[in-house]
Prior knowledge:
The chain has helices at 2-17, 147-172; strands at residues 32-36, 39-40, 45-51, 59-64, 75-79, 87-92, 100-109, 115-125. By secondary structure, it is α+β, with helices and mostly antiparallel strands. It folds into two domains: 1-21 and 148-173; 23-144, Immunoglobulin-like (Sandwich). A five-stranded mixed sheet has the order 2-8-7-4-5, with no helix packed on it. A three-stranded antiparallel sheet has the order 1-3-6, with no helix packed on it. The longest helix has 26 residues, at 147-172.
Amino acid sequence: MRRILFSGLLLLIVLLMGQAVYAGDGTANTLRITISPVLGEPGTVVDVQGTGANPDFDVVITLAPQADSADDAFATVTVTPADDGTFAASFTIPDSVADGRYFLRAEQFSDTGNVLQYYWNGFTVGTMAEGALLPETGAIPGTPFTVTAMLALLLAVGLVLRGAYAVTSHRLA
Length: 173
């Protein structure tokens, strides 16, 4: 009886975790960007396409050495999104940037300077630098799910399957 209750609890967890988890504030405006190309030498022009921007605030695009902050950014471009939240910009990788992994960030700030939302994509400077073929983003490309939510969902599904197997094998024995 305890196994059936445990399996039911796990199933409930899986159903609750199946709800969409957004890498943003969960509103209709959830910022996303794509970049092309994802690697290049200094001087490379990178095209940035974005969706989900709040049309009331500019989008600030930066090339930064870390994903969680635009501090120490090498370059910055500011664009105004269209009414539907889309935006586009071209970004040139400065000649002063050394080979390595960097992050193109798109951010929106409130009138008081607080970060409303941001999204980033990894960019590799240098020819075929190590790990260049493994893109990095702030969420799973093309979906609103975060990596953490997907891993939690996979863990919960595995636990439910294991619990169901234990219950059915116990009944058969």
